[in-house]
Amino acid sequence: MEQIANLRKVRNDITRFMMTYKFALDELETKVEILIKEFQLLHDYNPIEHTKSRIKTPESILRKLKRKGVEVSLSSIKKHVKDIAGMRIICSFRSDIYRLGHMLQKHKDLTVLEVQDYIKNPKPNGYQSLHLLVEVPVYMSDREERVCAEIQIRTIAMDFWASLEHKIYYKYKKDVPPYLLEELKAAADSVTALDQKMEWLHNEISNTKDVSEEEEEGLYKLTINDQQIYLPTALRELFTNHR
Prior knowledge:
alpha+beta; two-stranded antiparallel ribbon; five-stranded mixed β-sheet
């Protein structure tokens, strides 16, 4: 009976431990969802294309502990594996990445532990992304837990490159032929050029004087006795000829 009780305790401890990471992700997802709603309702532009969230599998966690050469325990996992909970935010443009990163860092209940800017300083293989390691408060029934989570913010092009790179490394079990590594790096350079060009185009469009809503809807503004009224554009010539 004592052995069964011990097994139940271990199971409950593991379940509770993993639940905290799920709840931490829920908190982050809520924060990002609020930002999306705010941009949609109050601004003309929403920088967030979409988001992805994931919890590392127990197998992945154990592999990481093995690589680090540390003991297998819940306390060891919490200390040595900081990216069990992960969120990826995909943006339209490079400037959006820093804009969102700044917004998230301003949240008073998030403790920023580390910022890694792989955009200004890409990894040797060409990988680009902004990484934020944050501590999220999770309120359980009997205590508050401070849970680590990793936020990755990148553009659509950066995300596509990272996805392809991951598939290649998985296919070759990390022993990627040199010529493919060179092509990956060249592709990363192309991603940078594409992001810069797309942002330039976006800025050019933004700086162009917008067509008024009335003109866009085919309405003609007419002033009569200091009063402004709107008529269909098709009537403009007719009205002008009879003034």
